[in-house]
Amino acid sequence: MNYRHAFHAGNFADLVKHAALLALLAEMQADSAPLMVIDTHAGRGLYDLDGVEARKSGEAQAGIMRLMTAKDAPGAFRPLVQSVRELNGGGPVRRYPGSPWLIAERLRPRDRLAACELRREEYAALRKTLEGHAQVEALCADGYATAASRTPAMGAALVLVDPPFERADDYAQAVKAVAAVRRRNPLARVLVWVPLKDLETFDAFLRDIEDARQAPLLVAETRMRPLSDPLRMNGCALVLAGPPGRLFETLEPVCGWAAEALGEDGQARVYRL
């Protein structure tokens, strides 16, 4: 599969990930304390759904376009739907927001965001997307290495680890990042997105992250189809290291709806480790 996110913007995995991200942000911002957010693989921040890549894959049509007109979508999707409407001025959905845009739009004056992107072309687009947000810093940097160094040693912190999984060591680097962030700040929450291809790869990742976690784990699987073809992205999973808060209640309906409404014999599971 092609991992350039322009091909996949607004697909089922984005819907699950962004609904969870917005729920975590809202919960953590209910506290008056400053919040530090780190996005390790920020991408360009905004995506053109009329672009060649999006039209070629058709994933947005099968994802965000269906969500925007769905009558049965759970309420946990409402913040994302509202964000997409606002981004598109209430008109046809031609642009989809990436995680750094969603985060930046919700920062309070006392909050901060460090958005990392290593690809220079994507980084240039990210800087343009985030212009005008005084609390945001766009970094052309390795997000894995930056995660722990930018996490404050005390206080509220949220780290989103969302790599493209095009490198052989992405799983191992994600585990190392979780462990490093949690060592630096035991209060930090780390949300990791991973593709679901086959159970062997995913189970190995869970075993590794359990060994390194130093935190409770919440796991949410969205299986769009049986995990029978390891060359396809058959679903996605979110793993939260740190206090789960109310995320379980968000993810159960979100993952369930995505698997059933958008999948083919899809299934969803949300559980604690």
What's the short version?
With 273 residues, the protein is of the alpha/beta class. The protein has eleven helices and ten strands.
Question: How much strand content do the residues show?
Answer: 15-25%
CATH architect. name? 3-Layer(aba) Sandwich
- The total of helices stands at 11
What is the CA-based Rg, rounded? 17 Å
**CATH class placement:** Alpha Beta
Sheet with the most strands: spatial strand order: 5-4-1-6-7-9-8-10
Elements, N to C (H/E):
HEEHHHHEHEHEHEHEHEEHE
Label the structural class.
alpha/beta
Ranges with pLDDT <50 over ≥5 residues?
none
Query: Which term fits the overall shape?
Result: globular
Largest sheet: 8 strands, mixed
Number of strands: 10
Terminal Cα span: 30 Å
Give the CATH H-level superfamily. Answer: Vaccinia Virus protein VP39
Tell me the number of structural domains: 1
Fraction of residues in helix = 40-55%
Residue-averaged pLDDT? 94
CATH topology heading: Rossmann fold
Layout of helices and strands:
Blueprint (H helix, E strand, L loop, with lengths): L11 H18 L5 E5 L6 E3 L3 H6 L1 H4 L1 H6 L8 H10 L7 E3 L1 H6 L7 E5 L3 H10 L6 E4 L3 H8 L5 E6 L8 H15 L4 E8 L2 H14 L4 E7 L11 E7 L5 H16 L4 E6 L1
Parallel strand pairs: 1-4, 1-6, 4-5, 6-7
Antiparallel strand pairs: 2-3, 7-9, 8-9, 8-10
